[in-house]
Amino acid sequence: MKQAPAVLFEILRGAWITARHFTVNMVFHTLRLFRIRTRRAGAVTIQYPEVKKPIPPRHRSLHRLMKRSGTDRPRCVACMLCATVCPSECIVVEAAEDPDPDVQKVPSRFIIDLSRCCFCGFCVEACPEDALRMDTGRIDLAAYDRGDLIYDLERLLR
Ligand code: SF4
Ligand code: SF4
């Protein structure tokens, strides 16, 4: 068990760190209030999940499959490039024949296992049809069950 002076020292050290952060932030916020430019902005506490930080437009969030214009059918032609390039091997694509001779192939099964995905975006870059995007803005992807992190064709087309 720690001795009383050591405990007191740790309490004072914690209080000092808190006070230091408070003062530094207050200085930065005050300078900004007077429109004085500083190298960094003061820290802001965001009350997540009630308040959400704006996501930059190029942020890679939950995937989605694009639809062919005017239809509910996926734009994907099951070329497997996304599955081939994926470093986490978390994409599974199974192809089927499309009755439309101009399209030829469609995915009969398209799965992304988000529990393995590292959100690198390679799949989006590799897609020649612009059929896969990571622009949903959804980052709250936690689930209690690993199975809920498996996104199939239906979920990705939503
Ligand atoms: S973002 Fe990267 S890891 Fe995730 S599915 Fe696409 S290629 Fe795979
Ligand atoms: S790369 Fe694009 S078109 Fe090819 S299988 Fe993946 S999503 Fe479909």
Compose a concise summary of this entry.
The chain has helices at residues 4-33, 81-85, 122-126, 153-157, and strands spanning 64-65, 91-97, 105-113, 132-133, 150-151.
Could you explain the architecture of this structure?
The protein is an alpha+beta fold and 158 residues long. The chain folds into 2 domains: 1-45, no CATH class; 64-157, Alpha-Beta Plaits (2-Layer Sandwich), CATH 3.30.70. The protein is built from 4 helices and 5 strands. It has helices at 4-33, 81-85, 122-126, 153-157; strands at 64-65, 91-97, 105-113, 132-133, 150-151. The strands form 2 sheets. It has a 3-stranded antiparallel β-sheet. Strand 2 (91-97) and strand 3 (105-113) form a beta hairpin. The longest helix is centred in the N-terminal third of the chain and has 30 residues, at 4-33. The N and C termini lie far apart (57 Å). The chain binds iron/sulfur cluster (2 copies). One iron/sulfur cluster is lined by residues 86-88, 90-91, 112, 117-123.
